[in-house]
Amino acid sequence: MKEEKEERDIIDLSRPIHTHMPVFPTVPKTFLGIYKGHSRVDNPPKFSTQNNLILMSDHAGTHIDAPVHFNPDGISIDQFPLDLMIGPAVMQDFSFKKSGDYITVQEVKKKLEAIGVSTQDLKYILFRTGAAEFYNTDKYDNYYLEIHVDVVEWMVNEGILIFGVDASTVDSDPDRATHMFMRKRTCYHIENLANLDKLPEDRTFTFICTPLSLRGSSASPVRAIAAVYRT
Prior knowledge:
Structural class: mainly beta
Mean pLDDT: 93
CATH superfamily: Putative cyclase
CATH class: Alpha Beta
Shape: globular
């Protein structure tokens, strides 16, 4: 008798990389184009190839920040632990808040308690801020929810070293307290996630986050994926 396999949906949580993709105002624009193409006149008969050239910031698109981004003594993204690349996650929807509002520890705890999930069972928390609705518009870069530094410290104390948002930043206060927490503790965050509205809020799912091994880099583009088992 064959065992029944659980059905699951694979959801892409990454933004496509292309020449005209939006990027944070302080980073260079992306270029992705054909370097050598099938139409080259010097191709041998019945044989051709395509090779592309890509120029981009390590902070463009869906990417994960390494501690060295804000900590001169922090580790770079090529030192990102392999065991953090896949594991259980939850999505918390705070898109009902207004841009500039805070997410607090008590709010995060309350949502976890409501679905009966312990921090001990998690590697990631993904926050839906509502910014994704404005992707590819001028409003996107200025739309964010402040992931309060107290939330980040609480998550790290609970063993959750990575969180992510569907916005271009996790904080926008002049002191950049949430980013600056990287100077105190080793942790990571993902920006510019997509399709968080397609994730369940009432249970865990498997999250896959695979940064490139860019030696000495302060961040890396990632192909972020969720595997959601159907109920």
